[in-house]
Design brief:
Layout: H1 2-50, H2 54-67, H3 72-84, H4 88-101, H5 106-118, H6 122-135, H7 140-164, H8 168-181, H9 186-198, H10 202-215, H11 220-232, H12 236-249, H13 254-278, H14 282-295, H15 300-316, H16 320-333, H17 338-350, H18 354-367, H19 372-390, H20 393-397, H21 405-419, H22 427-447, H23 450-457
Length: 499
C-alpha cells in the first residue's frame, strides 16, 4: 500500500515538473513577443498623439501598460494622453504609479503637482513641488507653482472670512483669483455660486455650479440646486433635465424625487397649454394656464407667464373687457413686457378705444422697437384712430367689433327706421337725418361685406374717396357705390332688404 502511494506521488510530481517546463517555454515565447509588441504600441501611441488622434493613441498606450506594468515611462505617456483629452482625474493614478516606480522622476512629480493645484489640493501639490525643489533647487516652474499654492491657501482663508461676514461681493472678488489658480476645485465654485444666489444673480450661480457636476463624483446636491435655479427662472425644461440627472445617480433620493414630481407636473401643464394655443383652442388654454397658477403659486415667473398668455387668449376669442382686465393685471406685474402691451392694445381696438391702443403700441415699441408686428400694429391703430375721428362704422351702428352679420343687420334696421328722412318735417331736421341715414347705410354696407369689413378692421375706410383709385366723390359723406337716393331731391319709398 505504501509503495503504491509512493508511486502515485512520484507520478504527480513528474506531471507537475513537466507542466512547469511547458509553461516556462510558453511564457518565454510570450514575453519575447510582448517586448516587440510593446515597442510597437509605444511608437504608434507617440505618432498618433502627435497627430492629435487621442483616442487611438490611448488605445495603444493601454496595450503597452498591460504588456509591461513596470515601465514608469509608459504610465507617464498614457497620463499625457489623458491630460490632452481633458481627463485629469484619469491621469493622476498613472502619474502616481510612475512616481512609485521611479521616485526621482521629477517631470511626473511636477505634472502631478500642477494637477493637484488646479484641483485645489494645495498641501499635496506643495509636497510635490518641494520634492522637485529638493532635487533641483533652481527649478523655476516648481518655484512659481509652490508660490501659487501658498497664495491659494491665503486667498481661501480671505474668501471664507468675507463670506462669514456676509460680504459676498468681496468673497466673489477673491474667489475670482482662487478659481484662476484652481479651476478644477468644485468647492470654490460652489461657494461663489452661493454668493451669487444671495446677491440675486442666479444666472451666474448656474454658470459656476454647472462644471461642479463633473468635478465631483455623485454630485446630486449640485444637480438639485441647478434644477431649482432653472425652475425659479422659468426654465422648466432645463430644470427637468438636471433633476433627472440627480435621479440617475440615486433614484431613491427623496429631495430630488419630490422636486422632480413638481417640475414634471408643471412642465407638462405648460407644454399642454402652449399646444392648445397652437391648435387655437384658446378657452382650454385659459383653463390650463389657470391650473399652472394653482400648481405653482409661489414663483412669480409662472404667474406672470400665465397672466400674459391668458390675456393673449382672451384677445384671440375677442372678449375685449376680459382681455383688458387680465392684460392690465399682467402689465402691472411685468411693466416692460412688450407682448402684454401689444395684446392689450389689440383688446383696446376690440373695445374701439383707439387712443389707448395707440398709447400701448407706442410703449411696446420702446421695449421692442425691432418687432415688425408691433410696428404694423401701431400703424393700424393710428389709422383706426384717424378713421374713428371721421366715422366709425361700428360706433355708428352701436355694435362691437366682433358683432356678427345678424347683429349688424338688426342694429341697422332699427337705426334706419329711426333716422329715415321721411320721419322729419323741417328742412334742418331732414338734412341732419339725411347725414345720419347715409352713415347708417354706409356702415351696414361695409360691415356686412367681408372684404370691406376686413379693410376697415385693418385701418382703411373703403368708402373714403381718398382710399379709392382715381379719387372721385366730393367729401367723406357719400353714398356707397355712387348710389344716392336723395340726389333727385324727390320723394322715395324706403325698403329694408332682408339679407
Amino acid at each position: 500500500m505504501d509503495s503504491f502511494r509512493r508511486a502515485g506521488l512520484s507520478g504527480v510530481l513528474c506531471s507537475l515538473s513537466l507542466l512547469g517546463v511547458i509553461l516556462d517555454i510558453q511564457l518565454d515565447g510570450v514575453l519575447g513577443a510582448t517586448h516587440v509588441e510593446i515597442e510597437h504600441h509605444l511608437e504608434m501611441g507617440r505618432k498618433l498623439l502627435a497627430a492629435g488622434q487621442l483616442a487611438e493613441a490611448l488605445s495603444h498606450y493601454h496595450s503597452a501598460v498591460e504588456g509591461d506594468s513596470k515601465n514608469y515611462l509608459t504610465y507617464y505617456k498614457r497620463a499625457a494622453v489623458f491630460l490632452a483629452m481633458g481627463k485629469s482625474k484619469s491621469a493622476l493614478p498613472d502619474l502616481t504609479r510612475a512616481i512609485q516606480l521611479k521616485p526621482d522622476f521629477l517631470a511626473a512629480r511636477l505634472q502631478r503637482g500642477n494637477i493637484l493645484l488646479k484641483q485645489g489640493n494645495t498641501q499635496e501639490a506643495i509636497d510635490d513641488f518641494e520634492a522637485v525643489l529638493l532635487r533641483s533647487p533652481d527649478h523655476e516652474e516648481a518655484q512659481e507653482q509652490e508660490m501659487k499654492a501658498s497664495e491659494l491657501v491665503e486667498l481661501r482663508e480671505e474668501a471664507h472670512a468675507a463670506y462669514h461676514q456676509g460680504d459676498y461681493s468681496t468673497t466673489t472678488s477673491v474667489l475670482e483669483r482662487v478659481i484662476e489658480i484652481s479651476p478644477w476645485d468644485p468647492e470654490s465654485r460652489e461657494l461663489r455660486a452661493e454668493c451669487y444666489i444671495r446677491m440675486g444673480d442666479p444666472q451666474k450661480a448656474i454658470q459656476d455650479l454647472t462644471p461642479t457636476t463633473r468635478l465631483r463624483n455623485d454630485n446630486r446636491a449640485a444637480f438639485l440646486k441647478l434644477s431649482m435655479l432653472h425652475y425659479s427662472l422659468g426654465e422648466h425644461h432645463e430644470s427637468l433635465n438636471h433633476i433627472r440627472e440627480c435621479l440617475k445617480l440615486d433614484q431613491d433620493d427623496k429631495e430630488c424625487f419630490n422636486h422632480y414630481k413638481q417640475v414634471k407636473k408643471l412642465s407638462k401643464q405648460l407644454d399642454a397649454a402652449e399646444e392648445l394655443i397652437h391648435m387655437e383652442r384658446y378657452e382650454e388654454a385659459i383653463e390650463k394656464y389657470e391650473s399652472v397658477m394653482k400648481t405653482e403659486p409661489n414663483v412669480p415667473f409662472y404667474t406672470n407667464l400665465a397672466k400674459e398668455r391668458i390675456c393673449f387668449c382672451f384677445v384671440k376669442i375677442r372678449l375685449a373687457h376680459e382681455a383688458i382686465d387680465v392684460c392690465s393685471e399682467a402689465h402691472q406685474r411685468d411693466p416692460r413686457n412688450a407682448n402684454i402691451l401689444r395684446d392689450r392694445a389689440e383688446a383696446y381696438i376690440l373695445n374701439q378705444d383707439y387712443e389707448k391702443a395707440v398709447e400701448d403700441y407706442q410703449e411696446a415699441r420702446e421695449f421692442d422697437g425691432d418687432s415688425p408686428e408691433i410696428r404694423e400694429g401701431l400703424d393700424r391703430a393710428q389709422k383706426l384712430l384717424k378713421i374713428s375721428r371721421k366715422r366709425d362704422y361700428y360706433k355708428i351702428l352701436g355694435v362691437s367689433r366682433n358683432a356678427n352679420k345678424q347683429e349688424i343687420i338688426k342694429a341697422y334696421r332699427k337705426l334706419a327706421q329711426q333716422w329715415h328722412p321721411d320721419n322729419f318735417q323741417s328742412e334742418t331736421e331732414k338734412k341732419e337725418a339725411e347725414k345720419k341715414f347715409i352713415d347708417i347705410v354706409s356702415a351696414k354696407e361695409v360691415l356686412t361685406d367681408p372684404e370691406l369689413r376686413q379693410k376697415f378692421d385693418a385701418g382703411e375706410d373703403p368708402l373714403d374717396p381718398e382710399n379709392q383709385q382715381g379719387g372721385g366723390g366730393g367729401g367723406g359723406q357719400g353714398w356707397p357705390f355712387h348710389f344716392d337716393p336723395f340726389q333727385s331731391g324727390g320723394s322715395f319709398h324706403f325698403k329694408f332688404q332682408h339679407n
